[in-house]
Amino acid sequence: MSFVPSPIPFAADSGPSRRFCVAPMMDWTTPHFRYLARVLSRRALLYTEMVTTGALIHGDTERFLRHDPSEYPLALQLGGSHAGELAHCAKLAQQFGFDEVNLNVGCPSDRVQNNMIGACLMGHPDKVAEGVAAMIAATDLPVTVKHRIGINGRESWDELCEFIETVAAAGCKTFIVHARIAILEGLSPKENRDIPPLKYDWVYRLKQAYPHLEIIINGGIKTFEDCHEHLAHTDGVMLGREAYHNPWLLADVDTEFFGEPAPVTSRHDALRAMFPFIQQELDRGVYLTHMTRHIMGLFLGQPGGRQFRRHLSENANKPGSGLEVVEQALAKVREPELITES
Ligand SMILES: Cc1cc2nc3c(=O)[nH]c(=O)nc-3n(C[C@H](O)[C@H](O)[C@H](O)COP(=O)(O)O)c2cc1C
After folding, report:
1. Which of 22, 26, 47, 122 to mutate to test the pocket of ligand 1 (most atoms within 8 A of CB)?
2. Domains of the chain with bracketed CATH
């Protein structure tokens, strides 16, 4: 694989590289998945699941912000719209060691809409700007926004530009753009990730219109070929579902996008590198199945991969299951021959 530098330099001058990002995904980008992602790539920027300001302020803050230092670079994604609460949570992000704090303006779920969280905020650029300004004032971390190209009823190019300009005027320099609108009534969150058509050209146009802003493109990106195509027009790519379902893809990210050696050379080594972490979590009382559900994709398409997954599904949820279940599952997939030079 060859290293093809982006023709466009990064626009933002602070924070971690966003050339290749793994998207925030509720219930998926948990600390356990992120640990695997980090074993596979040192350079991909990882995002937490969204955590609402209400949960952080009134709930178990430590639990929501818990992460392993090996996960860095790591961005915390917040859901909220109250400027004071966002500022408070941005401060917490810094105290807990995150590298970036990101505001969710893309989630279409009814549950969050009722609390003025997520994609519905695209209809309120001033409110987003107020929140972003408060976050910027409260922290030294880069403050970024992840959003859609519009919402139903507010889906014109001019309205998108108005959103970007209003939020950029509040100090936001980095926009992560899911290249489809969200339809706020009648579609489930899952449908909202597939049905509204992708309009990559709109994201490219944003970069042309606002070259001083860092524009990261998201939505439907599956291969490195796709990534390079997008990197010719934007500053970075963000992959969600493909990175989760086929995490081994991440093992080539450091070489492909950063010209650095890959941290691991086999899926077996990657999983073995997780053993001490899995044991540490088991010792803390975490159920094995809460961890193994995030490593199911590691042997996707490999001989024995199905048996690996079946062994984990059938055994990891049994009471008292430990690392031996992962070792047994691993033994079901053939280890690549070690290539030795004579
Ligand atoms: C299970 C799941 C949960 C998600 N949760 C979040 C979330 O918490 N915050 C967010 O901004 N986007 C969330 N998303 C959207 C993704 O970040 C991403 O924008 C979307 O999946 C499109 O990218 P993809 O086609 O590469 O998956 C979620 C997606 C999935 C599949």
Report:
1. 26
2. 20-258 (3.20.20.70), 267-330 (1.20.120)
